[in-house]
Design brief:
Layout: H1 6-9, E1 17-19, H2 27-45, E2 61-65, H3 72-84, E3 104-110, H4 119-129, H5 138-151, H6 157-163, H7 166-170, H8 173-188, H9 199-211, H10 218-221, H11 226-231, H12 236-239, H13 243-251, E4 260-266, H14 278-289, E5 294-299, E6 351-353, H15 359-369, E7 370-372, E8 375-376, H16 380-390, H17 394-409, H18 424-431, H19 436-445, H20 453-460, H21 466-471, E9 477-479, E10 487-489, H22 491-499, H23 510-530, H24 536-552, H25 560-569, H26 596-609, H27 615-628, H28 633-649, H29 653-666, H30 671-684, H31 688-698, H32 704-712, H33 718-734, H34 738-755, H35 757-771, H36 777-790, H37 798-812, H38 815-832, H39 835-848, H40 856-864, H41 880-903
Parallel strand pairs: 2-5, 2-6, 3-4, 4-5
Antiparallel strand pairs: 1-7, 7-8, 9-10
Helix pairs in contact: 5-8, 15-16, 16-17, 19-20, 20-23, 23-24, 24-25, 24-26, 26-27, 27-28, 28-29, 28-30, 29-30, 30-31, 30-32, 31-32, 32-33, 33-34, 34-35, 34-36, 35-36, 36-37, 36-38, 37-38, 38-39, 38-40, 38-41, 39-40, 40-41
Length: 904
Amino acid sequence: MAGRDLRALFSSNDRGMSTAEAFTNREAQWELTAAALADHLARVAAPGFDVEDLEAPRDNVLMFHGIGGIGKTTLSRKLEAALAGAEQRPAQWGEPSWPAGSRLLPVRIDLARSAGGDFEHLVLTLRAALASLGRPLPAFDLALRRYWDHQHPGEPLEAYLQRGGLAAKFGKTMPQQVQSALADVAQALLLPGTVGSAVGQITGSLVRALRERRQTVRALASCFRLADLLEAEPDLETFSFYPHLLAWELDRLPADKKVTPVILLDTFEDVGDRTHRDLERLTQRVVWLMPNAFFVITGRARLQWAEPALQGQLDYTGPAAWPGLAVSSRPGGIPHARGILPDTAPPRGRQVLVGDFAPEDCDDYLARRLHADGTPLIPGPVRDVITARSHGLPLYLDLAVMRFLELRRTGHTPVPADFEHDFGALIARTLADLTPDERHLLRSVALLDAFDTQLATQTAGLTHQAAARRLIERPFVSENPFGLWPYYLHGLIRSTLRGADDHTDDRWTPADWHTAATRAHAALGAQWQTGPDRDRLLLVGCLRQGLALARDFRLDLGWLTDAAWAYVSDSVWEPVAPPTPAGPGTPAAAAGLETAADALAELLSTLARRQHEHRAVTADRLTELTAARILPGDLQEMAVYYLAKAQRDLGRSADSRRGMQYVAGAGGRLAPAARRGLAHLARLAGDFPTAHAVVPDLGWPGRHHRVDGDIWWPHGDMPRAAAAYQAARTEAEQHSVAGERATSQAQRAFTLAFTDPDRAADEIELARQLVSGLTLRQTGHTIDMAALVRDAGTDHNVLDRAHVLREEIRVSGVAIATAILELVVCFHHAVLGDDQSITDTTARLRNLTEGGDYAYYTAIAAFMTDRPVQLSSARWIEDEQTVRERWRQLVAARRALLQSRCEL
């Protein structure tokens, strides 16, 4: 299925190059066409089918719609060829499912304005195609001749057919058949004279004969609307009802002449627009009046015939009239699945979005389009770049092929970098049939990852949503009904609008892009600040889009500052990093940190990514960010605070202390958190009295209850620590801070696992539920360690699980987590009474804490087995003997519990 690609052929002097109009697999569309046509054939063949029933619903339409350049015209041509004969069907297309022996007559009509067709041309094409039947169609032919003589006096029908190319395509027999039909009717009516000059007389006599039900015209008398059509004024309106006569003539053909026309109407967008539907009304009338013909329509937008609101603009509207064209609400499944009906569409759904090519299809297209001696002319690396940038749009592939030939023509050997390129022609094709408001709105929403009609209208600066409602019906706008903003542009269309040189008459200047970006930024801020549902999803969505706009167009932070604080306050850490900017639509596209928006995007990105990368990477990024001093004061404090946290996790306590002191001294929003950080640093050093003294002053902002629990569990006072963590969890729930709630519950589960393993199982499960959906890696490690403590002393693969967890913690770079894990392993060995393993684990623990932080963990390991403490600088709140006894009792209690289970 490959023809000559004449454009490529005439673009090169290379006679060794072969060109082919490559056709890539559209098997899904063929299967839909074959299935729909099989249904149509079965319905027409059913005993109850009546071609003159003008009230029955119509299911004789299949609509393929999609963006310009997606390959609809190519698909229409290939369907025509495949329906004409099995030998022309692409090899990958399967056998059709309709009955063997079915005779089909494919008729493809290009409705493009450039093709020069009109409604007369459409109807005459249908009649010319039926000339292959080799017989007159008297009812239609007589009406046609009357209309033609009235509307085109002195112009022979033969000359029109010759001039319009119909005679060359379908032969010259149609005028002869028309003349024969007139002669037959004149003879039946016993009329004298020359038939050609007596059409008016024939018509009048025939109408009288039909009204009087004369036996001589009994064959035509069964078409009971014929007389009315012949009496009506022969204008274009009347002419549009003549296809009913074609349908009637087809229905009365003898069995050996039976044929089903498959009419392929291409470029349907040129039939009219959403305001002027005169030509669409006439064309729809043809489809309705020919229920025994099957129509395959291709165009940019879906058909709206099933919408009741169009009543009065079109003759036949509503879902009852066109059940297959009704749009499903698609509450589930795949909305607008590329080339495949959504799984919630009606069983007979006939509106099909033509999808993008898959990457392998793109490569196949490029490989077969140009070749020499059987070898693809476009190298594989070049094909890879073109495929990646195309987003599967065939038009982009075609334009890239022509660019490849253009580069070769200038003596340049094309390389992959030559195709990091956008084509302005895509913009012209996309904007071609849009109204001025829609064109303006399309450019505006190209600034947004996703949008709704309100956000789109505000970004465009329009005062009404009508243009937005029309735009979302276009095939280059996809829908995700589950998204915060449900609509988004086709990826290639969006990137081209923002990145290509635009030579259209209404192209935007950089100032226009900046103005639209300012409007979009303000609209996003208004949605977050004044929306009825200021939930986490809305916050993150506004941040992602707002950060990109502020960064790319050098906008003031504005509402982004408050949004950033709201983002960090919940400790959830969803990704918010915007993509890398590029192109004229993103004039700031500079590398590095130059503006406050650059720095804020980097800050929030780093805070989210720290849950997935080593703390050293986080510290390095934050160090560079704080050194740049681009952020405003309060956001600079945020960067310093989280840098100090990362330094603490890495064991850089001195650096961490300096950062925490700076933030605490500034008295800003994070001052309570920084004071908590200083308390943690005191606890790390074993100075528990100092840490405990500041707890009353921390309050909720400083997470006082969790700090209290962090102090008491190293003392072995697990009930007190668990109560503190429960209070912390309750307070977090009251303030709706999901991250703090999960962290506090994880700590509570950890402490209870030492004293009550059975109860701890439920607490661990609750912790896992609370952390689900949050990006809190360290909290997840705490939960895993709680599970190890719960199973300490058993054969539940404690050491193997600890080994896996140790590697996960090593990747994160959080030193404290490794030390706690070794303490948990010590507890396991202590319960088992494995002295040598305790000695080995304590040695590892000592190496981990030789810098001074968490050095008291070695003392706790000694307390568990009542060993002497070699060296400890810890300052306990209580006397050391009390702490020792608590830890020894925890080990003894676990041994007793396990012994009692064995006895049972």
